[in-house]
Amino acid sequence: MESAEQLRDRLLAAFPEARVEVLANPAPVAQHSLIIGATHAVQIATLLRDDPDLAFDYASNVTGVDRPDQEIKEKVTVKETVDGEEKEVTKEVTRTEPGYLEAVYHLYSMAKRHGPVILRLRTENRTDKVTLPSLTPVWRSCEFQEREIYDLFGIVFEDHPDLRRLLMWDDFEGHPMRKDYVEPDDYEWEPTPHDAVLIKAKRPADGEEAAPLAP
Amino acid sequence: MTEADEKTIQDLRRSGILLTTLEDLYNWGRSNSVWPLQFGLACCAIEMIAASMSRFDIARFGSEVFRPSPRQADLMIVSGTVTKKMAPQVVRLYNQMPEPKYVIAMGACAISGGPFKQGYNVLKGIDRYIPVDVHIPGCPPRPEALLNGLMELQEKIREQNLTGENRPHHLRSDVSGEFPVPEFGACDLEPPSNPAVWTPPEPIREGL
User: Fold this and answer.
1) With an 8 Å Cβ cutoff, are B205 and A202 in contact?
2) CB B93 within 8 A of CB B68
């Protein structure tokens, strides 16, 4: 099978305006993935399926990823003029990496017996621009899994034939697999609390001021 | 019945004379043909299926007739994780069963939510909405544990009187076998429990 770089070059040759990047996996498995821009995603998926050399006819798995906004502290060396002298000054700069939601597709070829190729589609942000093109018209097996991502992460898939919640009920509010989901406070005593439950267990009893939960 | 009477009955039985009461006969029949409702919710159902097959053979206790309709079932084996989305259907199935009806909560999830207890989508025990007769702990319980739970239930049925407070529900007019079906709320079931059958445990906060 072609490597991720070869695939990227082939896709860029077919769609020069598309965004295709290789995201390297530093682990020993070296299972690199392709970040695909939303605008050309359906065309790229159709090419991956219909090209006789690639023939990715089977999307085995679709899953979601939530990346919240991240604050990254960096040390930057800047040249500054202090008292007429040029000096190199090291400053600590904090920048915010904007968060996004991501849909990850794992593709295999039954005909060619190769795979997987991993596609990643990213939304613009986590709040209002959470739309991605649905790949269900290309691979039918994406239907329920995209519904599950819509249910748990809140990615809206355009052109999905039946975009409803899959696991939670229709009137459910929120998307429970998001990192910032706040579940209803229904803590009950249990004998061996741990992690987040331990924090809830240590809270003062009713009537007293409740201690804030750890983030 | 006094102890001497019991001894006399046993002696008579050995010489071929059977003395019994209507109550004993009635409960003997009821307890040896407890028909379970055929439904499973998670991995505990696999153990329930194993209990019904030849190796463990639930037919020895007269419970091999798993009924596909709640109208023909006496026993609801809640075998597995009850999610909040599934809980209203479980309560509705229980309401549709005819009296006398019994419930076995099989496995950690059906009892308390098990490992998913503090999660967003799992009910913290089916006993919040319907009365449970036998709780079987385990994750999942082995088929022997289910058979033991069934024997406990049979024992319970045999001890029910035809008259008095302990009589089975179908002989009483003052109790209802129907329980309110919870509704789907914004992020939990409404109400989160039925106070008529379940009260929340008192939180223990010392020693933490």
Assistant:
1) yes
2) no
Distance from CA of A38 to the nearest CA of B (A): 31
d(CA A4, CA A119): 10
* Residue found under tokens 């809980």: B87
Residue A172 at interface with chain B, using a CB cutoff of 8 Å: yes
- Give the H or E element holding residue A59: strand A58-67
Q: Between A24 and A213, where is the model more confident?
A: A24
Q: What share of chain A is helix, strand, coil (3-state, %, to 5)?
A: 20, 30, 50
Interface check B185 vs A, CB under 8 A: yes
CB contact under 8 A, B85 and A190: no
Contact residues for A28 (Cβ-Cβ < 8 A; gap 6+): none
Residue B204 near chain A (CB below 8 Å): yes
Residue B67 bridge partners (DSSP): B37
Percent of residues, chain B, with pLDDT higher than 90? 62
A51: helix, strand or coil:
coil
pLDDT digits (tens, 9 = 90+) for B84-111: 999 999 999 999 999 899 999 999 999 9
Residue A210 in this model has a pLDDT that exceeds 70: no
CB contact under 8 A, B187 and A172: yes
Q: Taking CB atoms and an 8 Å limit, are A187 and B184 in contact across chains?
A: no
Partners of B83 in the β-ladder: B122
Q: Pick from A174, A187, A198: which is nearest to B187 by CB?
A: A174
What is the Cα–Cα distance from B77 to B158, expressed in whole angstroms?
19
CB contact under 8 A, A171 and B187: no
User: What are the chain A neighbours of B188 within 8 Å (beta carbons)?
Assistant: 184, 186
Q: What is the pTM of this model?
A: 0.83
Does residue A167 sit at the B interface (CB-CB below 8 Å)?
yes
Coil vs helix vs strand at B67: strand
pLDDT value, residue A209? 55
Is the four-CA dihedral B53, B58, B59, B64 of positive or negative sign?
negative
Spatial contact of A12 and A18, defined as CB atoms under 8 Å apart: yes
CA B148 to chain A, closest CA, distance in angstroms equals: 26
- Which range is least confidently modeled, A159-173, B95-109, B116-130, B192-206? B192-206
* Residue B174 contacts A, CB cutoff 8 Å: no
Are B147 and B56 contacting, i.e. CB atoms less than 8 angstroms apart? Answer: yes
Query: What is d(CA A166, CA A152) in angstroms, rounded to the nearest whole number?
Result: 9
Confidence band for A208, pLDDT divided at 50, 70 and 90: low
